[in-house]
Amino acid sequence: MNRLLQNFHSLVVGLYAWIATIFFGLILLDIVYAKLLRDVPGAVEVTTVFSDVADILLMAGFIMILAAIGAIVFSWTSGTARNLLIASLIVVLLEFITPIFLSPFFQIIDAFNIGPWLRIIPSGLASILALVGLYKFRHSRVYAH
Predict the structure, then answer these.
(1) Distance CA 137, CA 86 (A)
(2) Integer distance in angstroms from the first to the last C-alpha of the chain?
(3) Which residues, at least 6 apart from 15, have a Cβ–Cβ distance to it below 8 Å?
């Protein structure tokens, strides 16, 4: 029974790392498609596409936050992995909160073309922290026995 429980914990931590990596890929695809669709005529259709993509990204982000909380709970006994997963969750939360604080500066951000980097860096960092947290969690499980 104990081995089954450990496998479940590993599954939850791995699921979070996988979701964080998929979310990073979705952010990259969104940025690429946004650049490609700017040149397409028909602003109404483009706005609808961006709205649909934003909804998918918000839903994926919500699922990622829930998975992060689960991964932190199930990795609590492994200090290093837990701290990496907490750091990953903090970066994800900052990624979602950043537009609230930077909304007055969007014209400046657009002028310097740093908007995509404000999305790529946090999601990439969260993905890296989650993957390293998974590695540390699995490493602590293998050498604990």
Answers:
(1) 13
(2) 15
(3) 67, 70, 71
42 torsion bin: left (phi>0), alpha (psi -120 to 50), beta (else): left
Q: Is the dihedral of CA 129, 130, 131, 133 positive or negative?
A: positive
pTM, entire model: 0.85
Q: Tell me, what DSSP letter sits at residue 39? A: T
Residues 6+ apart with CB under 8 A from 138: 10, 13
Residue 134 near residue 82, CB atoms below 8 Å = no
Report residue 15 as tokens: 């699921």
- d(Cα 134, Cα 116) in Å, to the nearest integer? 27
Tens digits of residue pLDDT in 42-57: 655 666 666 777 788 8
Residues ≥6 apart with Cβ < 8 Å to 127:
17, 20, 21, 23, 24, 88
Residues 104, 77: contact at Cβ < 8 Å?
no
